[in-house]
Amino acid sequence: MIDNIATGYKAHRLNIEDEYYQDEVAYALAITELIKYDNQFLDTVCAHPRGHLTEGESKVALTVLQWLGTPVGKGYLNKVKEIKKSINNTKNKEYKEWVKKYQCDLFN
Questions:
Q1: For 17-39, what is each residue's pLDDT tens digit?
Q2: N- to C-terminal Cα separation, the chain
Q3: Is the model's pTM score more than 0.70?
Q4: Is 49 left (phi over 0), alpha (psi -120 to 50) or beta?
Q5: Would you state the torsion angle of the CA atoms of residues 66, 67, 73, 77, taken in this order, to the nearest 10 degrees?
Q6: What is the DSSP letter of 12?
């Protein structure tokens, strides 16, 4: 376990010696660095007025951010990339129909 690291509800998973958890450790370390730079970083992540995030809300936010380093979280991030590629493909008929329906373009 690493001392002085921002953790969510699964702090026991932050074992740098266990290869399975190394990405979670990396995500938690990155979050810790961002919080050191801006101690109200989680307020921004949660779209709260600065200084109004509860301890429980902070724990939930940290848990979700740490989760992104899990195999399931990485699968989710890969799916987001896949969908974004699809959306960015101007030949994508569904995207063109969506833009026409809502008269907007998210990427312009």
A1: 888 888 888 888 888 888 888 88
A2: 44
A3: no
A4: beta
A5: -40
A6: G
The full set of domain ranges for the chain reads: 1-69, 71-108
Q: Which tokens belong to 108?
A: 């312009």
- Rounded to 10°, the helix 22-37/55-67 angle is 140
Estimate the share of the chain in helix, then strand, then coil, as percent rounded to the nearest 5.
65, 0, 35
Residue 17 to residues 26, 65, 71, 74, 104: CA-CA distances in angstroms? 12, 20, 17, 20, 48
Contact 18, 12 (CB under 8 A): no
Each residue of 34-83: pLDDT tens digit? 888 888 888 888 888 888 888 888 888 888 888 888 888 999 988 888 88
